[in-house]
Task: inverse folding
């Protein structure tokens, strides 16, 4: 498997910016994903977490790029309604940025979201065997004080797979924690890595929160 870079931006410069932002801006991560929380924290930001709790299956688009954008926007709208209902932003003096995102995998021309059942997870993973898939991400940063938004896509990160044995697939499907992600397979899990022939892209993009795109949108939202 090829080496995977997390970012081309120097570590000290990234964290100097994020530390400054954390002092001047309140950040809300609108996601329940542990991977996204870990990425944003590793980028050096301090933030709170809120979950949108929307029915993602009620939002349909034919193209993966349109779908992830619509879902990220719907998540932002749902969280804004929660904050308004709770009067959470009343009297807030610091600028407040809300980060929402969505990811799907695409394999054999079919959009693969989070599987709804073990059968669907099994179908997803079998489709990757000796083939390839790519991740489509959309990140949206909303300034909750001004209402301004900045968004962008991260496409594609291509994953080439070796043959994936049926026995391994069955073991994975039994573990819900391995399949409760877009595409139905936690690609960064140590047991999965041997079946990845090549990953063209970055680990953070595969995990659903591209670092460079997210930081770019944060910077643009503060200008």
Result:
């Amino acid at each position: 498997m090829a080496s995977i870079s997390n970012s081309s931006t120097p570590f000290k410069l990234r964290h100097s910016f994020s530390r400054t932002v954390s002092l001047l801006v309140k950040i809300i991560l609108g996601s329940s994903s542990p991977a996204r929380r870990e990425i944003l924290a590793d980028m050096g930001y301090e933030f709170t977490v809120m979950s949108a709790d929307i029915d993602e299956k009620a939002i349909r688009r034919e193209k993966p790029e349109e779908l992830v954008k619509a879902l990220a926007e719907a998540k932002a709208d749902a969280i804004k309604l929660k904050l308004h209902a709770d009067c959470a932003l009343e009297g807030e003096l610091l600028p407040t940025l809300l980060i929402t995102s969505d990811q799907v995998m695409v394999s054999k021309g079919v959009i693969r979201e989070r599987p709804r059942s073990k059968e669907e997870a099994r179908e997803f993973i079998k489709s990757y065997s000796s083939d390839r898939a790519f991740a489509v991400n959309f990140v949206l940063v909303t300034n909750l004080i001004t209402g301004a938004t900045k968004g962008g896509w991260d496409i594609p990160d291509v994953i080439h797979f070796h043959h994936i044995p049926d026995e391994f697939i069955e073991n994975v499907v039994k573990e819900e924690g391995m399949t409760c992600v877009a595409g139905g397979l936690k690609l960064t899990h140590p047991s999965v890595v041997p079946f990845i022939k090549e990953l063209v892209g970055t680990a953070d993009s595969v995990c659903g929160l591209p670092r460079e795109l997210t930081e770019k949108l944060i910077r643009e939202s503060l200008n």
